[in-house]
Amino acid sequence: MEAREFRQLQPMLNRYLGEFADCFGRKDTRAHLRTYLRGQLSNLQRKSVEPIADAAGVPVRTLQEFLSQLCWDEDRLRDRLQQRVARTHPSEHSVGLIDETSFRKKGQKTPGVQRQYCGNIGKQDNCIVTVHLGYAVDDFHCLLDGELFLPKSWSQDRARCEEAGIPAALVYRPKTEIALELYDRALDSGVHFAWLTFDEWYGGKPAYLRALRDRKQHYVAEVPKSFRGWIDPPGVTQRPYRRGRGRGRQTPRLLAGSPESRTVEELWQREPRLRKKRWKLWRVKDGEKGPMLWEVKSAWFYPQDDRGLPGPRHVLIIARNVLNRSELKYFVAYAPPRTRLATLLLVAFSRWRVERCFEDSKGEIGLSHYEGRRYLGLKRHLILSALSYLFLVEGKEALGGKKSAVDRVPSAHGDQRDHPILVA
Fold it and tell me: Which residues pair with residue 148 across a beta bridge?
């Protein structure tokens, strides 16, 4: 943000920070919030504690203590941020975005750091991984929450965790469990999601999908080509079965002679009803290099759940890139009856919004610039970065800044809006 723009937004920033004043018990501690946000919103090349403190003329150690030691309620601040988004950007057409990002780090002291897959470079590297929940509606998107993924090597070394200030209750959890925790926290803050969407790593976990259905949440999930299910659901029986001595078969179970589940790739390649179905050409959105065109087929689909049984009916979507027909994507959609395919495609291809949040947060806010060695500092940095990004987005809107044209997503309970997705 340019200095001139920042000066124009000072009254707005004062009101904005006032909304979070009661998260700080002391006036001098609250003053550090302004210092940190001003540093993240400035044009500093590096937005870690030291350059922010130097630019503000405060001792570096003071700002380090603000992040990692001083007493203030970061959970309340995060909840207040979510409540603000729920109040100022409500919609029946909102999309929740689950994704993770990674930060390359040197050394072994940053909480959660180890050699693991680093998504921003596409290979193994020394990094930390954080799981995030984003929110998108119309021309607006932001990050609502984020949490550290603690690898097993850290979780099993409690002495190392204690040194980094990682609470005893924080242990290794699959990223899907972290995602559900972020989702539940946002709901408690009053955020409503008409849809959720996420990539194939999350979509390929049947237990995670079942947990969302238990919460009555609609979603469009990208799934891996190995994801299994049926076009025609097999029979399921609750009848106990016992032959001779020994344990009876578990129930419920598939009826004897039921067809085996098949992968979505096998269904696309071998299922006659899908093979014979004609491709429909859709313009998903307009990118920087022109329209994004995908050919699409769809069919009813019953995914195999984590117990090996057919789940409730979904829509299987097979999408092929027109400009690169070797690129295929598979989606399964848990949606209300009579939801249009255009709606499902809009949700499915909305995931770029959270990737844009990561890109802007790292490039403009300094999300990846944390250099501390304490878990509390990292947690607070993630929350403050989301707070800075929300102000950046709202400030640009207040200045009348150009907003990127995005696809409008219809509600999960209605489909009356005009669709920018067009049949070609």
Answer: 130
What is the Cα–Cα distance from 56 to 38, expressed in whole angstroms? Answer: 9
CA angle 202, 206, 207 (to 5 degrees): 95
In terms of residues, how long is the chain? 424
Hey, which bits of 167-224 come out as E strands? Answer: 195-198, 219-223
Structure tokens at 168: 């005893």
Element (H or E) spanning 292, and its range? strand 290-303
Interatomic CA distance for residues 338 and 344, integer angstroms:
11
Q: For the residues 8-27, what does the mean pLDDT come to? A: 92
Cα torsion through 366, 7, 82, 415, rounded to 10: -100
Q: What is the number of other CB atoms lying within 10 angstroms of the CB of residue 273? A: 12
344 neighbors 360 (Cβ within 8 angstroms): no
Number of H helices, E strands in the chain: 16, 15
List the structure tokens of 257.
Answer: 């002679």
For 83-93, write each residue's pLDDT tens digit. Answer: 999 999 999 98
